Amino acid sequence: MQLSKEQIDVLQKVESNNLPLDLDSYNSNQILMDLERKGLVDYEPEYDESIQLTGLKRIYLTQTGKNELSIHINNEKSAFKTTFTYPLITNTISGVIGIIIGSAITYFFMK
Q: Which residues contact 49 (CB under 8 A, 6 or more apart)?
């Protein structure tokens, strides 16, 4: 499932419990409602004595939401390894280690 950056941000906020639990902010957050329709987020309603919805006890990720968030995080980690900086860093470190070992071998054999 392809998720936008905004949807991933909302999933991360839900996971870390950084979303307000009042009904107005829930109803005005279209991204959160879309994620709830897709089955990635769910909530526990809070009722008063007359069985009217007064708020939300908690908003949480469903198992599908947790899976999608972990897939996105793993894709970000693997994307770093394919960019320019990661190969540059590893090749530079390998070159420095090779120079040090080569210099040490040359120093000991040239005595």
A: none
| Of 39, 29, 32, 1, nearest in space to 14 by CA | 32
5: tokens are 């950056």
Enter the DSSP assignment of 41. Answer: E
Chain-centre distance for alpha carbon 6: 12
Give tens-digit pLDDT for 47-74: 777 777 777 788 888 999 999 988 888 8
Residues 6+ apart with CB under 8 A from 26: 20, 32, 33, 43, 56, 59
**In the block, residue with structure tokens 């905004």:** 6
- Quote the pTM value: 0.63
CB neighbour class for 94 (10 Å; exposed up to 12, middle 13-18, buried from 19): exposed
Closest by CA to 38, choosing from 7, 70, 14, is 7
Backbone angles phi, psi at 30, to 5 degrees: -65, -35
Q: What is d(CA 96, CA 99) in angstroms, rounded to the nearest whole number?
A: 5
